[in-house]
């Protein structure tokens, strides 16, 4: 590993010292000594095992995540990131070198607490699965560590320096702490109780433990995929945008299997995950849209089609994927789709068309960066007016049909409209027609801004070279 990965060797040089073995062992023994001083002899085995398991999870998930995130944050604070970009390190070498080398102190604590758990189970004959306790701690610990590194990269601005978005960037890491919540009880039963209720995934009884391993593997895989993609961007390694749709599809497979209703559940889950993912990447990368579209325009003008795809923002990729899947859902609808298909044709398709309108609106404001003081604030104000204030005003003036004229998706929640109030064909056609007109209007405005900010920029550069 050290010979093939210079980053891992560098992290060992920064973090490893022989005294670390003694310090970690001493602190672990000090923590394990607490139950001997605070618990009665009758409760000692349970308290000791609980303390060892708590130490194991704290070391792998909390301490390891802090070390992993700090290894990237220090690159920016110590001004060494430019050296990393000039080196011959690949994104995978950077990711695994930091993930294994920078977190070495945490893995030492994991080792001592794992040995303690095995010893407690042997001496007191505790009916606990040492392999599963340690295995899940390692799996979920590495998952959280990868997402901690992702959170640091998300908090960096265009100049590769931390900006005032650290709290928002920590949101994915915080969410991961709550993801195990729905099946923690079943995981506990799987470790301590052999009569646990069945947990189905794609029709197979994987149990609570199996679901925990599947979810942990999913989080680790998505974390590594996202880390590789963002390191490619930061290290100026050009790549096609295949990792983002792959992550959405894998998430859809996991979510669809959890519902155990077959292909419709997979398609529906993928469509909604792609929708949420499109919203996230569109907002997260809004400050980079102007530069990205200028790069796309230049690559197309030079007929460098691969470079154009590499520079393309991610939101059109996931939006196209979700729109295709939502159209397929029409032919294999799930229960929710069947409930609204009678009046709308497809609620998912309608949602994606509205998302297209909002993403076009966001792109238009993003292209105005430099002319507007804050494109994000301007977009949020416009979005609130278009999706909340205007529909409420239209509802007060024209009722449900007035609200549908401004906010078509609202029609999905008004399927019980009396036919005497409005013909069924009106409720069916109005949302599509209204949304189509809105998309055309917003697209026309975006094309006008695109000509000024992107094509105009290219013309100015060409004139300057002459």
UniProtKB/TrEMBL annotation:
Stretches that traverse the bilayer: 20-38, 50-69, 99-124, 130-148, 169-188, 208-228, 240-259, 265-283, 312-332, 377-398, 429-450
Q: Is Transmembrane helix found in the keyword set?
A: yes
User: Any idea which UniProt keywords this protein has?
Assistant: Membrane, Transmembrane, Transmembrane helix
What superkingdom does the record give?
A: Bacteria
**Is-annotated flag, keyword Transmembrane helix?**
yes
Tell me the protein's name. Answer: ABC transporter permease
């Amino acid at each position: 590993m050290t010979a093939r990965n210079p980053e891992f060797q560098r992290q060992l040089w920064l973090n490893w010292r022989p005294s670390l073995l003694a310090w970690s062992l001493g602190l672990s023994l000090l923590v394990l000594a607490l139950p001997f001083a605070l618990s009665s002899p009758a409760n000692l085995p349970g308290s000791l095992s609980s303390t060892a398991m708590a130490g194991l999870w704290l070391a792998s998930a909390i301490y390891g995540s802090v070390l992993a995130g700090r290894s990237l944050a220090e690159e920016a604070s110590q001004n060494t990131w430019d050296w990393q970009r000039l080196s011959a390190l690949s994104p995978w070498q950077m990711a695994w070198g930091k993930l294994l080398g920078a977190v070495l102190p945490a893995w030492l604590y994991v080792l001592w607490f794992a040995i303690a758990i095995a010893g407690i189970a042997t001496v007191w004959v505790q009916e606990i699965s040492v392999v599963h306790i340690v295995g899940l701690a390692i799996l979920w610990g590495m998952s959280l560590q990868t997402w901690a590194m992702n959170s640091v990269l998300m908090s960096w601005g265009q100049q590769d320096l931390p900006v005032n978005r650290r709290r928002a960037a920590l949101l994915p890491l915080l969410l991961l702490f709550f993801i195990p919540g729905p099946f923690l009880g079943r995981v506990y039963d799987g470790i301590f109780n052999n009569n646990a209720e069945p947990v189905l995934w794609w029709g197979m009884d994987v149990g609570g433990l199996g679901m925990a391993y599947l979810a942990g593997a999913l989080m680790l895989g998505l974390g590594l995929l996202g880390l590789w993609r963002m390191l490619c961007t930061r290290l100026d390694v050009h790549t096609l945008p295949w990792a983002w749709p792959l992550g959405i599809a894998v998430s859809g497979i996991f979510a669809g299997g959890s519902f155990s209703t077959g292909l419709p559940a997979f398609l529906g889950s993928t469509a909604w995950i792609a929708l949420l993912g499109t919203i996230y990447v569109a907002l997260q990368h809004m400050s980079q849209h102007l530069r990205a579209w200028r790069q796309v325009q230049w690559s197309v003008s030079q007929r460098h089609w691969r470079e154009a795809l590499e520079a393309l923002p991610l939101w059109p990729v996931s939006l196209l994927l979700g729109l295709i899947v939502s159209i397929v859902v029409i032919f294999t609808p799930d229960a929710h789709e069947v409930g609204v298909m009678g009046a709308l044709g497809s609620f998912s398709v309608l949602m994606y068309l509205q998302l297209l309108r909002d993403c076009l609106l966001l792109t238009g404001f993003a292209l105005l960066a430099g002319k507007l003081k804050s494109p994000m604030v301007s977009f949020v104000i416009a979005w609130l007016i278009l999706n909340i204030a205007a529909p409420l005003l239209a509802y007060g003036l024209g009722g449900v049909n007035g609200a549908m004229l401004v906010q078509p998706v609202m029609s999905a929640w008004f399927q019980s409209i009396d036919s005497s109030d409005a013909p069924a064909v009106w409720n069916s056609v109005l949302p599509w027609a209204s949304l189509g007109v809105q998309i055309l209007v917003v697209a026309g405005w975006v094309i006008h801004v695109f000509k000024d900010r992107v094509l105009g920029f290219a013309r100015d550069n060409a004139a300057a070279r002459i």
